[in-house]
Q: What sequence folds into this?
């Protein structure tokens, strides 16, 4: 059996026209002889009837007191509606289907409701149905605890459902269908001349996703990487094959001249707060420990950490900043904070050791009159922190400076 997993995101299912495109992709692959497992997200975006955010708003308007476990039960409805809708449309075309919830498809998770981790995928029923020649439609974004409670996997979780299922089934391909033409050099909503990439390595896109490129969830990529399942990110609304995500050796199979690039793309995370804690007169070692322990104890995730002999600088999400400041003050520190910042990242496997890349970043931001509040780098990424109002211009300036539109 040649198994393919197709995942359709929210906007790919939200209108009649979009669903017609979905049917087209399904029929094409069936005609090519593949056994299909289709993973779906909830239809549409906030405001549309069964979208995840609409369900959350609904709960907020009605008591606003749902516990995490019950909230997950509510959220699971979004994918169930979209899976059954797709099933009905396929059956109407004479295509036999079986809908399975995350639990029925074999997703076992921990009980961290709202952001559960997949512990195991046991796709027995999926395989059974495929063997009967049926298309299996699976509700993405969800699973079940060993006790039988419904759980959800967190934002972007349907991507993870798709690659985890692909790995468990040893699928020959996982196609992630979305509303853009693949993985681009930057978010096309901000950088208009962003260009689709033909092929990227798991590591490159993992990095981009971790640094904010929301086109695919980083955990989804990690799972695909571990099991070496090829993934394509492609448009529901076109027939182009989009971006192939694979291991670097897989690049040879793809006709491309861009393997040697230094910079793959540019990503951003907005709405972060920079926190500075100084320790006048030394003793910074103990301070660092105190600061980061306090953050961890309060479940505040920290990023962009710079440690110097005189103190620490790091970022938290704006939504966590009030609490972060409060708990630091409670242990006797005097933190300073700057909210409304954005982290802009330049990502590329080839950055390592290439002289002049940082200079180029500083130059292009300086020419655009953008202040760099903080910077850091690793083998594959250079980050700069800027004010949020400068973010769009920073992204465009860097994209142009590295000639990513070419
Ligand atoms: P879906 O509902 O299909 O999962 P998402 O909204 O999660 O769709 O992801 C697609 C969106 O990701 C695009 O509309 C685009 O604005 C955004 N995006 C951010 N960075 C990138 C990038 N580098 N390449 C492509 N899309 C990106
Ligand atoms: Mg998504």
A:
């Amino acid at each position: 059996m040649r198994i393919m997993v197709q995942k359709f995101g929210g906007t790919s299912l939200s209108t009649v026209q979009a669903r017609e495109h979905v049917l087209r992709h399904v029929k094409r692959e069936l005609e090519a002889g593949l056994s299909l497992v289709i993973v779906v997200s909830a239809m549409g975006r906030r405001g549309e009837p069964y979208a995840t955010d609409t369900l959350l708003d609904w709960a907020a308007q009605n008591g606003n007191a749902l516990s995490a476990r019950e909230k997950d039960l509510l959220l699971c409805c979004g994918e169930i509606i979209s899976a059954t809708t797709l099933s009905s449309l396929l059956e109407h075309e004479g295509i036999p289907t079986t809908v399975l919830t995350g639990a029925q498809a074999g997703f076992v998770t921990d009980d961290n409701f709202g952001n559960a981790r997949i512990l195991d995928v046991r796709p027995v029923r999926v395989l059974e149905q495929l063997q009967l020649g049926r298309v299996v439609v699976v509700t993405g974004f969800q699973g079940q605890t060993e006790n039988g409670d419904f759980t959800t996997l967190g934002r972007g979780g349907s991507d993870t459902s798709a690659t985890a299922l692909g790995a468990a089934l040893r699928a020959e391909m996982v196609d992630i269908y979305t509303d853009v033409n693949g993985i681009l050099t930057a978010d096309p909503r901000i950088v208009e001349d962003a260009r689709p990439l033909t092929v990227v390595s798991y590591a490159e896109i993992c990095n981009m996703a971790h640094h904010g490129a929301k086109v695919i969830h980083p955990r989804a990529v990690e799972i695909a990487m571990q099991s070496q399942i090829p993934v394509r990110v492609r448009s529901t609304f076109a027939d182009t094959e989009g971006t192939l995500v694979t291991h670097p050796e897989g690049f040879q199979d793809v006709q491309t001249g861009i393997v040697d690039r230094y910079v793959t793309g540019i990503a951003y995370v907005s709405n972060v707060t920079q926190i500075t804690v100084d320790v006048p007169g030394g003793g910074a070692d103990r301070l660092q420990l105190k600061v980061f322990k306090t953050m961890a104890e309060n479940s505040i995730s920290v990023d962009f950490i710079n440690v110097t002999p005189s103190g620490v600088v790091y970022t938290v999400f704006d939504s966590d900043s009030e609490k972060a400041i409060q708990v630091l003050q409670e242990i006797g520190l005097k933190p300073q904070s700057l909210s409304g910042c954005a982290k802009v990242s330049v990502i590329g496997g080839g950055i390592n050791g290439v002289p002049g890349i940082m200079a180029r970043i500083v130059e292009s931001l300086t020419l655009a009159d953008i202040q760099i509040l903080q910077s850091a780098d690793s083998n594959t990424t250079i980050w700069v922190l800027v004010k949020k109002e400068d973010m769009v211009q920073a992204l465009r300036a860097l994209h142009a400076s590295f000639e990513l539109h070419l």
Q: What stands out?
A: Residues 9-12, 41, 156, 178-180, 183-184, 186-189, 213-215, 265 surround adenosine-5'-diphosphate (ligand 1) (CB under 6 Å). The longest strand covers residues 265-278.
